[in-house]
């Protein structure tokens, strides 16, 4: 909870404060009030559709309960935000799926710069601390420096890394990694991939090939295909997500850089429009700054 409160500082100062401000010169719940509410939500990247839906539902509930106390109404908005997230899924949705036996494989996809490599480094440390034998696979052979960056995380975390040469076939690296994991008894393989959305056809082929190679070596793998999205890119994150969903089966979202945005609202449309769970959120740059997503802590972090 403390990490959330710290990581959501910027969003709280802006989004949370604007929601609180709705009640500063509160003249009762009239049309202006709902207009302001919608505007505040849209500016926080909740998205147009989701903002209208929240506003509608708050209005219905205010009318049916005849609430007029600003405190009650403000709590009602908070509850709505949490409910909107949780009712579209189950509380345990942020859990990751592991193989019943043998190594589990998690594939990380997303465009360049969103925080894939960093999230893998943070997660590797987390799983290692829980006693799992982790192997990293540097399949982003395209971006200059991506391989070295993953190797750096490997060193820092004290976990092994399988890497090929720059520009080599990512599927060959993936194959080498899952084979090693199976033969040498690793528990978990985290696979970094390149994210060139500019060339969607090639990207799709590349991810497909990586997946086929993995599944041939380890049935039912990858257990998770995690799409990494950068919350500071706002509505663009949704556009990216839609493009990836067209090309690959995504099992969950890692939402990074929540600490770097004043508009933490993007969590809601990810769930509401894309029907995907946010599994982890990035709340800073250090190895500890990755937390399992918790909708209550998130919304409370905005309003603290
Ligand atoms: P990739 O190209 O998707 O692998 O992205 P990187 O892992 O290289 O991350 C790009 C930049 O974002 C790096 O400078 C990271 O330190 C930074 N970054 C990643 N996650 C977070 C986060 O949760 N918070 C902040 N503030 N920075 C982050």
Which parts are unreliable, with pLDDT below 50 for 5 consecutive residues or more? none
Sheet with the most strands, sense and barrel status? 8 strands, mixed
User: What is Rg?
Assistant: 21 Å
Ligand list: guanosine-5'-diphosphate
Number of helical regions: 12
Structural class: alpha/beta
Q: What is the residue-averaged pLDDT?
A: 90
Principal-axis shape: elongated
Number of strands: 8
Q: For the largest beta sheet, what order do the strands appear in spatially?
A: 3-2-4-1-5-6-7-8
**H-E string:** HHHHHEHEHEHEHEHEHEEH
Question: Termini distance?
Answer: 11 Å
Q: What level of helicity do the residues show?
A: 40-55%
Strand content is 5-15%
Organism: Pediococcus argentinicus
Subunit structure: Part of the signal recognition particle protein translocation system, which is composed of SRP and FtsY.
Family: Belongs to the GTP-binding SRP family. FtsY subfamily.
Binding site for GTP: 110-117, 192-196, 256-259
